[in-house]
Specification:
Blueprint: E1 5-9, H1 15-28, E2 38-44, E3 53-57, E4 63-69, E5 71-72, E6 75-76, H2 79-97, E7 101-104, E8 107-110, E9 113-114, H3 124-140
Parallel strand pairs: 1-2, 2-4
Antiparallel strand pairs: 3-4, 5-6, 7-8, 8-9
């Protein structure tokens, strides 16, 4: 089956299961036919601002980079929480690939419109990712 390429870097237990999970997320998010895309996933010790995850890409671009933190706020992040965070960031990957989320000259775009005035928790891309992360985890990992 042709689908986006996934690479996983960094230390994470049971890497094979994480690969399978990533491909299950790709299927669930309907990204399976985007076989020319690449998703780079890195498990890192810590991210800036004690974030648990980060996804960066280019609107309709060929790849996204996802980083998942193993520690946050000075504490080790539990494995299941890292997998929930991965589901959240994969929603952002979907948004980048489909051109829903974008950036132009340092300003966020949502579905082609400037979207810089939102508080973090009210950003439409964050609301979608937060609303979907738990169910994606249940459907694709457990």
């Amino acid at each position: 089956m042709r689908r986006p390429l996934v690479t996983i870097q960094g230390q994470i237990k049971n890497k094979r299961k994480v690969y399978a999970y990533a491909y299950n997320l790709i299927t669930e998010l309907k990204l399976s036919r985007m076989y020319s895309k690449v998703i780079y996933i890195s498990f890192v010790t810590v991210l800036e601002d004690d974030m648990q995850g980060l996804c960066l890409g280019i609107s309709n671009g060929p790849s996204v980079c996802i980083q998942i933190a193993r520690t946050s706020c000075g504490h080790r992040v539990d494995y299941d929480q890292m997998m929930i965070t991965l589901a959240h960031e994969m929603v952002h990957a979907k948004q980048w690939f489909r051109g829903e989320l974008g950036e132009l000259q340092g300003e966020w775009l949502w579905k082609g419109r400037k979207a810089g005035g939102y508080k973090y928790e009210n950003q439409p891309w964050e609301r979608e990712a937060t609303n979907r992360e738990e169910q994606l985890y249940v459907d694709c990992f457990l």
